[in-house]
Amino acid sequence: MACLAERPRAVGELAETLPISRPAVSQHLKVLKDAGLVTDRAAGTRRVYRLNPAGVAALRDQLDTYWARALDSFQDVTKRPDEEKS
Amino acid sequence: MACLAERPRAVGELAETLPISRPAVSQHLKVLKDAGLVTDRAAGTRRVYRLNPAGVAALRDQLDTYWARALDSFQDVTKRPDEEKS
DNA sequence: AAGATTGGTCAGCCGTAGCTTACCGTTCGT
DNA sequence: ACGAACGGTAAGCTACGGCTGACCAATCTT
Prior knowledge:
2 copies of one chain form a homodimer. Chain A is α+β, with helices and mostly antiparallel strands. Chain A contains 4 helices and 3 strands. In chain A, strand 2 and strand 3 (46-51) form a beta hairpin. The radius of gyration of chain A is 20 Å and the shape is elongated. In chain A, 7% of the residues are buried. The model of chain A has no long low-confidence stretch (mean pLDDT 88). Chain A binds chain B through residues 2, 5-8, 43, 48, 51, 53, 56-57, 60, 63, 67, 70-71, 73-75, 77-78, 83-84, 86, and chain B through 2, 5-8, 43, 48, 51, 53, 56-57, 60, 63, 67, 70-71, 73-75, 77-78, 83-84, 86. Chain A binds a DNA duplex through helix 3.
């Protein structure tokens, strides 16, 4: 995903950069697209992929709220007196 | 990890809750301990595990800075005029 | 001192994520 | 119209994460 941050790229172009084959890249892009993290656009025989800002932001938010919840409830506990029942 | 958030627990105790066997739990705890996310304390034949606040916070920070960097550099790009070279 | 509890470790099995190769469809250039 | 460029998809292989069962060590109880 980091390789798409700079600018939109075609599949083969990505594959050149990465240590994996073109089909592998294509498969990755498929799941990223399904997840809404990238969008694609046909350009002749080429297919240009770019990051989807909304998707990436959404993911970030999800993780944020997850961690917020986790740490909140956790700190609640640590602030309580140690109530260990052997 | 969530099962440790509430209060410290012994290995067998965790295994009862979880859908996996006791050895499996033990193995998970090992990697969590190596990662500094939990600490353990001997209590008789039992071994009590608890979350390590420092470790968890550190992980959270790592992820935070990762996402901050990623989104920052990404938004830099999106704000620039679209410079697509076919 | 002997049995019972508890937990770590080892060996082995299994499912699956992720890769490659091969193939096919589509679009562009000439 | 035909070859070249580019990508998606299918089939198959491999490596590995994660689980289980068996075993051993340590501690507690009586």
